[in-house]
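re the bet — no i am not wrong, look at it urself. input seq straight from the record:
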Amino acid sequence: MIEIAGIIFITVGLLFDLLGCIGLVRMPDVYNRLQASTKCVTFGTCSIMFGTFLMVGFNATGMKALLCIIFVALTAPVSAHALSRAAHKSGIKLWDKSVVDQYREDCPAE
């Protein structure tokens, strides 16, 4: 039963990763691409690692999978924020049909 749950989590993770890759290709600008890829790949990778943990249990591989979940959940959003902020500061324009630029409204002096 645990193996079936692990396979389900791994399958869901693979689907999220696939959606993240499609988002990289389909989204119009760097900001939308970062949002799509970061969210999907973070959830996808964490789901794959959790499925791996369920399948192997509390051994060295399972503990490494849990550590990977923590690492990805902490670093992926922070790195995406840093990349998008650097892109905004370097002058990369938003998509023409973007509705709001919240960063420009919050930090007009920069």
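see?? Residues 2-106 form one domain. told u. also The chain has one domain: 2-106. so pay up
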